[in-house]
From TrEMBL:
One Pfam family this sequence matches: FMN_dh
Family of this protein: Belongs to the FMN-dependent alpha-hydroxy acid dehydrogenase family.
FMN hydroxy acid dehydrogenase domain boundaries: 1-359
Keywords, in A-Z order: Oxidoreductase, Peroxisome
Enzyme Commission numbers on file: 1.1.3.15
Family annotation (PANTHER family): GLYCOLATE OXIDASE 3, S -2-HYDROXY-ACID OXIDASE-RELATED
Subunit structure, interactors included: Homotetramer.
Cofactor(s) required, per the database record: FMN
EC primary class: oxidoreductase
Principal location listed in the UniProt entry: other
Listed InterPro entries: Aldolase_TIM, Alpha-hydoxy_acid_DH_FMN, FMN-dep_DH, FMN_HAD, FMN_hydac_DH_AS
Subcellular location: Peroxisome
UniProt-recorded name of the protein: (S)-2-hydroxy-acid oxidase
Amino acid sequence: MEITNVMEYEKIAKEKLPKMVYDYYASGAEDQWTLQENRNAFSRILFRPRILIDVSKIDVSTTVLGFNISMPIMIAPTAMQKMAHPDGELATARATSAAGTIMTLSSWATCSVEEVASTGPGIRFFQLYVYKDRNVVRQLVKRAEEAGFKAIALTVDTPRLGRRESDIKNRFALPRGLTLKNFEGLDLGKIVKTDDSGLASYVAGQVDQSLSWKDIKWLQSITSLPILVKGVITAEDARVAVEYGAAGIIVSNHGARQLDYVPATIMALEEVVKAVEGRIPVFLDGGVRRGTDVFKALALGASGVFVGRPSLFSLAADGEAGVRKMLQMLRDEFELTMALSGCCSLREISRNHIKTDWDTPHYLPAKL
């Protein structure tokens, strides 16, 4: 079957993967309202394209934290990728590097920071969960730094794991032969079968529920890497993140896997962008499946987007080649959207290029 859009990878992944693995990747928390909303909200944003503009040359490149990348589309952290494909995070790293963009490696990867670094050059960020044992965190951050990772994406929305009912039903555990590679030597690498979700039990035992804003200062004291705060969806928290010296914000609801009935990230984005007032970059993570989605996020003030599930499903479908093709399709669609909207570079994408169902008609000329 010829793949013509990113969504088609999910169907292939569902057919190929064991039910427990597919459900772990695909599901959201509780009623999964936010899971649906992360996608549906994009359809409530419409375009206001400009015409008769020379779009013969289009530049989709950008910079993130000072690093030049080929496009404003990056790979979000997703856990345990060897459940999707034997090459796991190594395939994702190679594909992302070939595309000239950024990969974020999950703390809970099935390949270590060193293994991912060994795939060759590339701009990579490291997603961090803060464990109760701070020595574990210190070691992990130091290893990421030494392996050439360029930033820490600190996940701040997971003091406890959201209630993911399919994981409870499936008694989710890491398949035989796989470990959380970054924790293997610390005896924290296994997620075993329990009477619940094995991951929920693991998080309850290991992740620090007392994590607070002061810990960003602590993190800054143990690393010189810039810290992106991942999991901000309100203006109030966005302002505090700036005060505490965050290098950037990732607007994320954890793929709708934590608190159900929070807004779609694309709905929360503009509130966060307005609150930071241009002081730090804001990125969107959640629900992106089309180049049109990327354009909409940038029009609402995002500096770039991260994609999660598309990388997992394309990896499951066709390994490294699948992830490469997925990124290329998003890039091509985004470039086409720019051309059809009358934009030749990212800086030309503006709020006036879209209208939303929460807009007042601010974009109308004074005289009709």
